[in-house]
Amino acid sequence: MKLFIPALRTAFALLGLTAIVSTFFDTATRATINPFNFFGFFTMQSNIFLVVVLLVAALVSFSGKQQSHSLMLVRGCVTTYIVITGVVYNLLLAGQEGGVTLVWANSVLHVVLPLYAALDWVIFSDRTSLPWNKLWVALIYPVLWIIVVLIRGASDGWVPYPFLNPSQGYGVVAIYALSIAVAAVVFAALIWLFSRLHLFPHSSTDQGSVRPVPLSKSTV
Predict the structure, then answer these.
(1) Burial class (CB in 10 A: 0-12, 13-18, 19+), 25
(2) For the segment 6-39, what is each residue's pLDDT rounded down to a tens digit?
(3) Which of 12, 60, 130, 184 is surrounded by the most beta carbons within 10 Å?
């Protein structure tokens, strides 16, 4: 497992990077790209975060060092975001017009990587128990993203997803925005909970892993 796990993470990170870059150039062949719009989607941002985190975690493991608690916290947050991407897309957006037109890239960004990230977090044991008093950290990005989207929707009319379109009325938009925030809390809590479970205790990266921290007042 010493090399397998970081190699696997590197492979999926490169797959995600390829999907993002391919989507960018495919979009550029059909329209002038506004980078604030293209990279304004939660899908793009969460996948970029995941690519970076997977590569960093892989490099740390390859170097034989232990992953820091800060990196663990970031991994937990990013796993939360990419899982939200997969769930929201498949429940609300799948089959609708717009979005990623490359079929394979769409599948990678909305299905393959969210599923891999969830399995990576659950199966591989190179993580510590995330402290419950740090759960609020996972909410910073989704809340800021919602605020920026609402400001842009009110100012220049651009929104990344139809359910956040102000034309529906701000009451409807507020309900969806609140739902996203609640979903972030729920999924983050699940990610935090799974950080305490080691279903496959031997699936670590050996030198690049962090020993499980037993439950105590200091970790709850």
Answers:
(1) exposed
(2) 999 999 999 999 999 999 999 888 888 888 888 9
(3) 130
